[in-house]
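Shift notes (night). Ran Disease resistance protein At1g50180 while the centrifuge was going.
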Amino acid sequence: MAESIVSNVAGKLGELLIKEVNYLQGVDGELRSLRDEFQWIQAFLKDADVSILEGNERAKIWVNQVRDVSYDAEDVIDTYIFKIHQHRRGSHGCLFSSLMTTYACHPCGLTILHDLGNKIGEVKRRAVEISANRSKYGIESIGAPSSGSLNNEARLPLSWKQTPVVEEVDVIGFDEHVKTLVQLLLAEDEDRRAVISIVGMGGLGKTTLAKKVSSDPRIKQHFNCHAWVYVSQAYTSRGLVESIFKELMAVDKVMMMNESIAKLADGELKKVVYEYLKERKYLVVIDDIWFREAWDNIKEVLPAEMLNGSKVLLTTRNRDVALHADRQSHPFDLKFLGEEESWELFLKKAIPTKCAEHCPPNLEEIGRQMVAKCNGLPLAIVVLGGLALRKEQSEEEWRKLLKSVSWQLREGEDQISNILALSYHHLPYYLKPCFLYFAMLPEDSSLINANRLTLRWIAEGFIEARDEETMEEVAEEYLEELVHRSLIQVAERNVLGGIDVCSIHDRLLDLAISEAKGMNFILVIKNNSEGNIVTLQKTRRLALHGDKSWDVAQQYPTDSARSLRTITFFGTKWWERDINTDSLCGKCIRKMWYNLACVLFFASLLIAGPRALVSFQKPRILIGMNLLRVIDLRGVTIILPKTIGELIHLRYLNVQVGRTKSIPSSIGELTNLQTLQIQNKYSTTKLPSAIWKLQSNLRHLECGDSCSIKGQPSADSLPNLQTLSSIKAGKWLNTGLLEKMINLKKLSICGICNSYGKALDSLGKLNNLIELELTSEDEHEIPTSILTASHQKHLRLLRLKGKLERLPEVNTQSLLTNLIKLTLEFSELKEDPLVTLGKLDNLQVLVLGLNAFIGKEMVCLERGFPQLKELDILFLISLEEWKIEEEAMPRLRKLTIARCVELVMLPHGLGKITSLQELHVSNMPSAFTQRLRANDGDDWHKVRHIPLLEVTDLDLED
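Came back to this:
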């Protein structure tokens, strides 16, 4: 971790010397000397990390000192850059009005340089002293390089993406457990609502087992209502009920906005959930419940008097909680794995080949000794296997790993913590900050958006471009490497094979939090934070968990947050009204600070202090937070202040804006901004023409809903943009700019009409474009010509929302040729789309949405759709007949049919598609669903081979 910080500082010093070469007269020598010192320290740090791993306190103290002085150096550099920017803006160009006048000659410039020189000199003195301490205290000999150095291990092999990964669901020895629990849940002889509890310590796989059980096809079919609720230690009564409500509504496709939920009082919300469940056979999974009181809150909304076989599946570490929930059901105690089960699981991770069960004879004895240290805990075994996977399969390397595991061995639960901590210490330096970043997550953040995570890593400076790879590609590889090391789990992959959603086990989250403490990496403030307020001095990241965390944050000293680089808020509904910081007087602000604690965010943005709000007096906690790199406040509705442009170090901005006011033009001064994500509460949000000034650094511009951009771009605007999402078509589109955005990978434009046809023809020239979404304006058609764009070989995902005259013939020049996923909505095609689309050899997912086809008959021709895995037919209200010919869709695994109200029956050919694993039928007429009744339905023979079958009537939904 320290090496990553030092590397970042050394890089910044080098950049500063290059960019400001003309204005650093008198201090450039000191800067070069300090950079050299940090480079020497960096060269030594890998070995120092080994010393820490071996328990040497001297090395640990030394690394802590290195980290602190590195933080100080980074603050000095970033503060200097901020002051320079402020001075240049305030001078209105007077510094450069004459070629004879240099920055160093200006009185204010001299003051800034003098201040920089003093601070750099102090940092250098400390850095030299710390370097000298290596020899003085014998640290140099402790950290002698060795060929087996834990942090000198090679990076993942080039074939790592093809290496099988044992996911969390592949834990050995669960088959019998699943069988037993499924039988308990399917039992119909109950005269009550039973609660089945899975009990065991953290890391045994309780959640994994619950997932396997609840996803079993027999369970899916048996219960017509499902919900999964994660509880954790930091639950709230209201939050639990809302979670159940949202889960149920999502499953049954009933739409209700969050605003509607918020209007319901607690009692009303409980009643809604109770009444909804009362007439249904439900299965509710309550995961990771710690306290009796949590169950008492939950059971109020779970009807018990309807004796229809409804069940609750509960996971907990506390046996008392399980007995409290249901004393008539014996808790299912999840045991540790046996010796052979543990060995088998370890081999799946350590040697993931087709012959994993055959361990090299010379390694088996050493391997079994290592596995024995885990005492049958699956999580520890999986992590240990991930460590072994990174090592050369030799006796020497495995013995070194065994020695490390043995050194960590202690009694009781500490043993598991230390084995898991070993996985962190074995990480190469470039992965350590990426793993520690998970420490900012709340306990109940079971699912993490992978794209948002990796973009933040980039903004934090954790990622560097490598050879011809982009920083985004390197970040994705880092995430995959954490997965391969079993520190992170994959929850969902996209059709391209990349990670869409990931998760972290609670024990590993505890590890990240534990390791982040004491190194100023992050400070987490929670609703229930108590005790003495510690200083924020040098703390790099602040994470706020829950609405009340703002109240706690206000207690911090005024000037203690000047080193913060990141602010993240996890929570919703913290304030119901929009915040307009440009129209508030000081008295109003002070009132809101003490009553609503809402100043935390916008005070940080009002960098100018008295110049922006003269009356702003007491709540000064975050005034002067000039060094922010990341602001992620997507749970808060705000209006960005005019002073947003002051945050020149900002690289990532994710906010939800309110009302209809435009984004301030000063955003164009954020020249370092890489990612701008605007969640607009109202669809009329406008981006200023200053957006075009962001130039080369902006890489991702995303809007939650459609945003328009004012003004005209220049010829070289946004050349490195990779994502342009949910932007309205406008004059900018006809400037020829689109074809110059050669780095675009994801493009989403709405408001398309025929007049933009020529501009859209240039899409064929964007050879890096992978994902494209176009939405037409009202009744306008999407120009068919774009589908025949030549030279477009990389497009994989296409979504078209709007009228299409027709689909083009499939040929080697078609934009459709290499598609993996295609979504059509409102296309109003009159010709059968399946005839054309069935010829796409690479298509894996096809979604035909509302009125995509307005004809009466569709046919999957013989041998059509050779690679299709998922097909959704939704809201085709004119469709009456669907035919499937021989050998069509041979790889189809999932089929969804919804609200095709005129469709009479399933096609006869469906029964011959043996690959089909899931069929979801919803909102269909009773006449259609009756044909699917088990055993006696007219279409039962077509679907009886499908493991998972879900059917709901249109009549029931209405």
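Residues 677-800 form one domain. The radius of gyration is 30 Å.
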